[in-house]
Amino acid sequence: MGSLFRSEEMTLCQLFLQSEAAYACVSELGELGLVQFRDLNPDVNAFQRKFVNEVRRCDEMERKLRYLEKEIKKDGIPMLDTGENPEAPQPREMIDLEATFEKLENELREVNQNAEALKRNFLELTELKHILRKTQVFFDEAEHGGVVSQMADPSREEEQVTLLGEEGLRAGGQALKLGEEGNEKGDQVYKSVFIIFFQGDQLKTRVKKICEGFRATLYPCPEAPADRREMAMGVMTRIEDLNTVLGQTQDHRHRVLVAAAKNIKNWFIKVRKIKAIYHTLNLFNLDVTQKCLIAECWVPVLDIETIQLALRRGTERSGSSVPPILNRMETFEDPPTYNRTNKFTKGFQVLIDAYGVASYREMNPAPYTIITFPFLFAIMFGDTGHGLIMFLFGGWMVLKEKPLAAKKSDNEIWNIFFGGRYIIFLMGMFSMYTGLIYNDIFSKSLNIFGSNWLVNYDRSTIQHNKELQLNPNSTDYIDYPYPFGMDPVWQLAENKIIFQNSYKMKISIIFGVLHMLFGVMVGLWNHMYFKKRMNITCEFVPQIIFLCALFLYMVILMFVKWIKYGPKNDPIDGPGCAPSVLITFINMVLFKPSTKVGNCDPYMYGGQSGLQKFLVVVALLCVPWMLLAKPIMMMRNRRKQHYQLNNHGAENGDVEASMGALQQSGGVTQSGGHKEEEEDMTEVFIHQGIHTIEYVLGSVSHTASYLRLWALSLAHAQLSEVLWNMVMRNGLAREGWDGGIVLYAVFAFWAVLTVGILVLMEGLSAFLHTLRLHWVEFQSKFYTGLGYSFQPFSFEIILDAAQATTED
Amino acid sequence: MGASAIPVIAFTLLWGAVVFLGVALPLFVPKGPNRILQVLLVLTGFTCWLFWLCCYMAQMNPLIGPKLNSKIILVMAREWVSQKHRLDRRLDNSYCIWTD
C-alpha cells in the first residue's frame, strides 16, 4: 500500500501487444486507470496515424448522439441515467452501433421534415379559415348596411383577400391575432386581413405587385356566398385531417425519442470509450512484422501485478493465444509524481499541487498539512461561534457526500466548496477549539469555571471612579490562572487589547518557529532518503543551528519571561522589571549590552549576556558554512577524482575507459573539459550563494511573516466585537413588545453580516494567509516542487471530462 | 509561579493521550495505511496541547490587571462573585440551620 508521505515509486515499462489483443488489453487498462502511455510517434501528425479512420468514425457517432440528445432535450424527455458503466464494446460491435445511430438519425430527420411540411400546410389552411370567417363577417355587415349595391357591382372582375404582416400595416385595418406558431422561430405573428376590390387585368398585376412588396399572402375569394361556405367547409375538413396526421407524426417522433433516451447515456459512454482506446492505440509503435504493437508506459511499481492481471483478462477476452509482455525498462528520465489519495486527503493534496507538483519521491507536505493547515487557519479565525457555523456547513457536506456528489452541479463556487469539504470541516473544528481558548463566541466570553479575578472594591470607591484596574498583586487575583483558555474578565476589560496583543504575538512566533523548524526537519528526511550526506552536513546542520540559536532561543525567552516575572514576586522580578523579549533579542543580535533601568536587572538569568553572544557568533558562523562548505567539498572531491584518473590513465593509456568506469562507480558526472567544469563550479557557487541568502534573510522575514497570525486574529476579534456593539446591541437594548420585533429585524441583519463578512470573507482571507504560510514559509524549507504529475489513461477521468465539457 | 496542578495535569493527560494513541496505534489496529492517521493524531495532540499551554502560561503571572468600567465592576461583583460563592453560602446556611 502506498503512503502519502512520498509519491509512488514508478517505473517505465515496455508493453508488447498482439495486434488482435491490443484493443481489449487497452480497454482493460482504461478501466483500471493506472497506466500512463507515452507518445511513441510524436513527429507523426494526427492525420497520419494508424487508427485515424476509427477515431473519425467515433467522432461521427458522437455527433449523431449529440443530435439525438438535442432532440430529446427539446422534447423534455428525461434521460435515464442508471449510473452503470458499460465496458467498451468489441471493435466489431462498432458497426452495429453505427448502423443503429444512422437509422435513428435518418428516422428522426425524416420525421422532422414531414412534421415541418405538415405544419406549414396547417398554418396556411388556418390562415385561409380565418380569412373566410372575416370576409363572411364583412359581407354580412355590408348586406345589412346597404353598401351592397356598390359592392355588388357586376363589373368587378375578381376579389382577393390578402394577409399582411402587422409590420407592413400602417394605415389601419383589422388586426387579427392568429394563435398559431407562425414562423420557424415559434413566435406569434399578428396578421391583418384585407379585401381588395379592383377592375381589370392591369390593376390585378399592380395589386399583386404591391402585395408581394408587402410580403402578403394572396388567397382567392369566391364571389357567391354559397361558394364561400363550401370552401370554408372544405378547409375545415382538411384541417381536421391534417391534425390527425400531425398528431400521429408527433407520436411517432416521441416514441423514437423515448426509446433512444433509455440508452443514450450508455451509448455515449461506449462511443467515448472506443474513441479513447483508439486515441491511445495511436500512440503506439507498430512492430516491423506488423503483428505486434509496442507501447511505453509509466506504471506504479506496486501495481504491476494488477496491471498484468488486467492484461491477461484482455487477452482472454480477445481470444488471442499469445500473452502480452510487460518489460521493465531502465531510464534516466524523471518519472511522474503519483500520490495515491482518497476523498479525505485529496483536497489537501490539491492545495500542495497548486503550488507545484512534488519532484519524484520527494517528501510530500500534504499529510502534515492536513493538521497544520486547519490549525494555523484557526489561530487567525479563533471564534467558537463562527467556527461552529463553518463546522456545521463542512459536516453537512461530509454527511451528505454521496447525494451531493451525484448531483454534479456545474456551479463553480459550489464545486470549490464541495471539493474542500474536509478542509472546511477541519477548519471549523479547530476554530471552535481556538475560539474556546481565546474564550470568544461571537465576541462574547463564557464563564464556565468562574473568573479568577475578583472585585474587592467597596461601593463608594466604585461610585467615585469611572474606571478601576484590578491589581494582580492583591486579593483581586486568585493565585492561579483560569484553567482553560482566556479568563472571561479580559473580554470586558478596557485594556483587553494590550494584554491579548502580547499573548497573541508570542503564540504567533512560537508556532511560526516550530513550523519552520519542522520544515527543516522534513528536509533532513529528504536528504537521508536521497542519500545526500553532503547536504546534511553542509546544509541541514548549519540551517538548524542558525534557526535554533536565534529564533528558538527567542521562543525560550518568552517562556522564561512567562515563568519568571510575576506580580507577587520581589520587585526585581516584578512587573516593573520584566524586560521586553523583542528588545532583548534585538540587543542580542546587535551585541549591545542591555541597559540597567533603576534597580532592575536587565537580564533574565545569570550568564545571559555571555550565552547570547555565543549564540549569535555560532549563528553567524553558520552563514559561511552554508555558503562555502558544499562547493569546496565538491571541488575537493573532483580534484581527488582527477588525480586518480590521471594516475590511472597514465598507467593504462586508456583514459576513456577508466573515466567510464569511474562514472559508474562514483556516480559523479564528469563533464570532460576543464573549462566546462570551471563554469560548472561557478554555477554551484552562485546557486549556493542564492540558497544561503534566501535561507538567512528568509528566516528573519519568515519569522516576522508569522505575525500575520496575530494580526488577522486581532482583526477578526475586533470586527466581530464591532458588529455586536453596533448592530446586535441595538436590538437587545429595547424593552417591551416592540423590542421583540426590533430584535427580530436586528438579529436578521446581524446574522447576515456575521455569515457574509465574518465567516465567508474573513474566512477566505484567513484561508489565503494560511495558504501563503504553507507555500512560502513552510515549504521553502524543503520542497522543490519540480515534478510533473502522473496522468493515467483512465476511462473515468475521460468520461468525467467529456461530461463537463458538454454541460458547459 | 502560580500554576495549579489539576488543570495542568488534566489537559496534559488529555492531549498526551491523543499523542500516545497516535504513537501506539499500530499496537491496537492491524497493519494498514494507518501512518497518516498516526501523524494526524500526534500533530493534533501536540498543537492543541501547546496552544492551551501558551494561553495558560500567559496568564500564570499577569503583569497587568484588567481595567474595568465601574458599571461592569458592579455587575461583576453581583453576578460572578455570587456565582463563585453560592456553594459556600449554601454550606454556611445549612450550618446556621444546624446550629439553630
From TrEMBL, chain A:
<dbReference type="GO" id="GO:0046961">
    <property type="term" value="F:proton-transporting ATPase activity, rotational mechanism"/>
</dbReference>
<feature type="transmembrane region" description="Helical">
    <location>
        <begin position="507"/>
        <end position="528"/>
    </location>
</feature>
<dbReference type="GO" id="GO:0005886">
    <property type="term" value="C:plasma membrane"/>
</dbReference>
<dbReference type="GO" id="GO:0007035">
    <property type="term" value="P:vacuolar acidification"/>
</dbReference>
<dbReference type="Pfam" id="PF01496">
    <property type="entry name" value="V_ATPase_I"/>
</dbReference>
<keyword id="KW-0175">Coiled coil</keyword>
<dbReference type="GO" id="GO:0051117">
    <property type="term" value="F:ATPase binding"/>
</dbReference>
<dbReference type="GO" id="GO:0000220">
    <property type="term" value="C:vacuolar proton-transporting V-type ATPase, V0 domain"/>
</dbReference>
<keyword id="KW-1133">Transmembrane helix</keyword>
<feature type="transmembrane region" description="Helical">
    <location>
        <begin position="540"/>
        <end position="560"/>
    </location>
</feature>
<keyword id="KW-0406">Ion transport</keyword>
<comment type="function">
    <text>Essential component of the vacuolar proton pump (V-ATPase), a multimeric enzyme that catalyzes the translocation of protons across the membranes. Required for assembly and activity of the V-ATPase.</text>
</comment>
<feature type="coiled-coil region">
    <location>
        <begin position="51"/>
        <end position="128"/>
    </location>
</feature>
<dbReference type="InterPro" id="IPR026028">
    <property type="entry name" value="V-type_ATPase_116kDa_su_euka"/>
</dbReference>
<keyword id="KW-0812">Transmembrane</keyword>
<protein>
    <recommendedName>
        <fullName>V-type proton ATPase subunit a</fullName>
    </recommendedName>
</protein>
<feature type="transmembrane region" description="Helical">
    <location>
        <begin position="611"/>
        <end position="629"/>
    </location>
</feature>
<keyword id="KW-0375">Hydrogen ion transport</keyword>
<feature type="transmembrane region" description="Helical">
    <location>
        <begin position="413"/>
        <end position="438"/>
    </location>
</feature>
<dbReference type="InterPro" id="IPR002490">
    <property type="entry name" value="V-ATPase_116kDa_su"/>
</dbReference>
<keyword id="KW-0813">Transport</keyword>
<feature type="transmembrane region" description="Helical">
    <location>
        <begin position="370"/>
        <end position="393"/>
    </location>
</feature>
TrEMBL record, chain B:
<dbReference type="GO" id="GO:0012505">
    <property type="term" value="C:endomembrane system"/>
</dbReference>
<feature type="transmembrane region" description="Helical">
    <location>
        <begin position="36"/>
        <end position="59"/>
    </location>
</feature>
<dbReference type="GO" id="GO:0033179">
    <property type="term" value="C:proton-transporting V-type ATPase, V0 domain"/>
</dbReference>
<comment type="similarity">
    <text>Belongs to the V-ATPase e1/e2 subunit family.</text>
</comment>
<protein>
    <submittedName>
        <fullName>V-type proton ATPase subunit e 2</fullName>
    </submittedName>
</protein>
<dbReference type="InterPro" id="IPR008389">
    <property type="entry name" value="ATPase_V0-cplx_e1/e2_su"/>
</dbReference>
<keyword id="KW-1133">Transmembrane helix</keyword>
<keyword id="KW-0812">Transmembrane</keyword>
<dbReference type="Pfam" id="PF05493">
    <property type="entry name" value="ATP_synt_H"/>
</dbReference>
<keyword id="KW-0406">Ion transport</keyword>
<dbReference type="GO" id="GO:0046961">
    <property type="term" value="F:proton-transporting ATPase activity, rotational mechanism"/>
</dbReference>
<feature type="transmembrane region" description="Helical">
    <location>
        <begin position="6"/>
        <end position="29"/>
    </location>
</feature>
<keyword id="KW-0375">Hydrogen ion transport</keyword>
<keyword id="KW-0813">Transport</keyword>
<dbReference type="GO" id="GO:0033181">
    <property type="term" value="C:plasma membrane proton-transporting V-type ATPase complex"/>
</dbReference>
<keyword id="KW-0472">Membrane</keyword>
